[in-house]
Design goal:
By secondary structure, this protein is an alpha/beta fold. It contains 16 helices and 14 strands. An 8-stranded mixed beta sheet has the order 5-6-2-1-7-8-10-9, sandwiched between helices.
Length: 492
């Protein structure tokens, strides 16, 4: 299953499950409070009821899930499918509660009511989910940001095909005719001298960001998750060089192989086992690949812990607000633009631990920087207030970042997001440390960050985390973070 298929599967799973929960809640409210048809059952019986219902839902959803693109589904077949799935879910569920001898089986109003509510809710849910996916998902934060490197003769056709994939948001096109053809450019079958070629400013409403050999400068600075390369006449050495640099940045690369394209065109049955994008078979290169279920578990845990962290942050802000404001003027919350996953920009939140003019004074303190490279760190920083030293010592200033976690801009565990100024000085290999969502804590923070003075060592630790990532590693880092905070080790 490709990325679009996985996104569609989990979206439908979550939305269908929400409909099931709402249906049972409505049935209980109607037949327990309005029409009193449901008797009293202890919480343990309701727990068994809902566990059996969840199991039945998972069995039917995974067993009868349609992998057809939601944009291409027929409305009539969709209606037949949802009635079939809701009926099977409740048939299997009824068998389960009979087997476990749940007394709630006697409450036919609960079962019948929730079944009817569930079936009725599924129809508008599928309609609005389809509208949302096809109309809004492409431009949401969840969509994969994509760059395209191709030539002008096939650009329009290729870009149109890529845009058909609603899970991709194409942010820029690179027309590489002049880069990989030596003296001429072929456009619509005509051979035109290279110096006379005029490239369009946009194709299919997507800006053409480069048409010369400086295109890597755009790739380096732009927020990109994936790059599609469709170049028929580039040499293997030139392609390899591009792929290696993109992999160094942590960007997933999809490469069209011209010989496979010809085979696909000539194949009688078109059963070539590769992913086809916009009619072109593509080989995919990625520095790392993660299990989708593990990533989903990471995000679910982030949301759960994020809500708890936000409550703690609100309490902490209420406690430190008066002494902080009394010591120095300025806002309670410090907001600064940082660079997140693969170059996305977001505002990070902290409890202000410095004087209001801290950013302006940073330039004059750069000569005191104790870090070698693209980060700034200074012992006894004069910009830090007395209250700021206390909240930094116990990492209290970091608590508002739980709001960033809830918004999906950060994770509990990840790499630290750089400032824009730091990011602009990055080399290609440095960008790879941004190929995962940034975190409140991470490998660097639990490895004695006050003792690390070389930025390259920070990059090495971050890349090690990205290469070795697992749910178990996150848990290990979280436990180490608690120890670091309680002992103040490396918290300067």
């Amino acid at each position: 299953m490709n990325r679009k298929g996985k996104v569609q599967f989990w979206l439908e799973f979550i939305f269908d499950l929400v409909c099931l929960v709402i249906a049972n809640a409505l049935s209980f409210l109607v037949f327990h409070y309005i029409y009193v048809k449901i008797g009293y059952y202890p919480p343990s019986e309701w727990l068994r009821y809902f566990l059996a219902l969840l199991l039945a839902f998972i069995v039917v959803f995974t067993g009868f899930y349609s992998s057809i693109d939601i944009k291409q589904r027929n409305r009539k077949n969709e209606m037949i499918s949802l009635i079939r799935n809701s009926s099977l879910t409740y048939l299997i569920f009824s068998a389960f509660i009979l087997l476990i001898k749940s007394p709630i089986i006697e409450s036919r109003f609960m079962l019948l009511g929730s079944f009817l509510f569930y079936t009725a809710l599924l129809a508008p849910e599928k309609y609005f989910l389809k509208r949302w996916i096809t109309g809004f998902f492409t431009h949401s934060k969840t969509a994969s940001l994509v760059g395209i490197i191709t030539t002008s003769d096939i650009a329009e056709e290729f870009v149109k095909g890529i845009k058909e994939d609603w899970s991709l948001n194409v942010s820029g096109i690179i027309l590489a005719d002049k880069v990989f053809s030596r003296s001429t450019v072929t456009t619509n079958g005509a051979v035109i001298p290279e110096e006379r070629v005029v490239f369009p400013k946009s194709i299919c409403d997507i800006p053409v960001v480069s048409s010369d050999d400086t295109f890597m400068d755009w790739v380096r600075s732009a927020p990109l998750d994936e790059v599609f390369i469709n170049l028929d006449h580039a040499s293997n050495d030139e392609i390899q060089e591009i792929i290696e640099e993109l992999e160094d940045m942590g960007i997933t690369v999809h490469l069209n192989i011209p010989r496979l394209t010809k085979m696909l065109d000539q194949s009688k049955f078109n059963n070539i086992n590769c992913r086809v994008y916009a009619g072109y078979p593509m080989a995919t290169f990625a520095a790392t690949q993660y299990n989708t279920a593990s990533l989903a578990a990471k995000r679910i845990f982030d949301i759960f812990a994020g809500f708890i962290g936000c409550l703690v942050a609100l309490i902490a802000m209420a406690i430190v607000a008066i002494p902080l404001k009394k010591e120095s003027e300025g806002p309670l919350i410090f907001k600064q633009q940082r660079v997140g996953k693969n170059g996305r920009l977001f505002n990070i939140y902290k409890i202000r631990s410095m004087y209001a003019d801290a950013e302006e004074r940073k330039a004059e303190l750069m000569k005191e920087n104790e870090m070698d490279g693209l980060m700034f760190k200074m012992s006894d920083d004069p910009r830090i207030t007395k209250v700021g030293k206390f909240i930094r010592k116990y990492s209290i200033d970091e608590l508002p970042q739980f709001f960033n976690v809830i918004k999906g801009e950060m994770s509990l565990v990840g790499t630290r997001p750089p400032t824009i100024e730091e990011f602009e000085a990055y080399e290609s290999r440095h960008k790879r440390r941004l190929s995962m969502r940034p975190g409140i804590t991470g490998m660097w923070q639990v490895s004695g960050r006050s003792d690390i003075t070389d930025f390259e060592e920070v990059v090495e630790l971050d890349c090690k985390y990205i290469d070795e990532w697992s749910v178990g590693l996150d848990i290990k880092i979280l436990f180490k973070t608690v120890f670091v905070v309680l002992t103040h080790k490396g918290a300067e």
